[in-house]
Amino acid sequence: MITIGEAFSWLNVDDRSHLSNVNLLSLYQLQDVHVPESHKEALVRQLRANSHSSRDVLEGLEVLVTIARYEYEKGDYAAARQDLVEAVRRYRPISHRAAVAKWMLGIVEWKLMNNNQAYANWFHAREIFQRCAVEKGRVSASDMVRWYYKQIDKMRLDMACTAEEAYYWLNLFEPSRLSDPAKQFAKQITEEIVQKKYAQAYEIGNLLAGISTNRLDPAETAEVWVVIGLAAHQMGNPRWAVEYWSRGAAAFTPWSHPWAVVRWMIGVALWSVPGEKDRAIRSWVDATETFQDLRTQSDRTGDANRRDWYENTARIMKAALEQMMREKA
């Protein structure tokens, strides 16, 4: 997993630090174990004030991001979130440093169990790095192109271990089969989860399940179970998520793209359930092998875009499985 420290180390790649000696000294003091906590708190307040008054905008934002890293590492996630939200707001939207701040913000949001917000920040950060790589390619900056794609691979690996990334894959090549009412319920579930209103989210999930039982389209029914399973997973109930996703997988055509996606999601949940390591491995192997088969089929039909996507994603899935097996050994 990409740590907050590793993401922070990306901030000034291909550039220099903009910190003045005064701010640099104050930030060093935050790491000094001999400096009293009361003094450190006063330093953070002063540094925040400096971040707004600095003539060099990039210096002010670097101060905020550095403070956020310090706050995260001492366990003050709410404060880290506040400073990173401010940094993201003030950085130029499609820029290298904005992407770094967004990735760091995603790490903080994930720690706060704000999965949707975390994934959105990671998704945008990855997208910006992809754009940066293209821009560097246009000016023949080959070292930076390689650097960006190396980090993008790390990002993809981390994101592949989330149910949110797998859900993004679900309708990547075919449109959602959810009816308009079902889409509205799914949106409401997400909104309630973002606000931590879990009881309301469960109620809406029950209504959504009721809709699905009255539909003739099995693909819609399957997708409804995927939505409800994702909600259960985000609310901290992996066993329920597995139950709902298993219903979804049973309704999809075996060895199809959506079936493989749901098998991957089941594995994501099972990794967090004690004693379910073997089932998690089996689910991820099924998904990976299916994507490899779909890669071959896409190649035979001349669909280069799908072929390349399945090839790259299956590679990341294999790496994710290897990483998870090391962590769970």
From TrEMBL:
It comes from the Bacteria. This is Tetratricopeptide repeat protein.
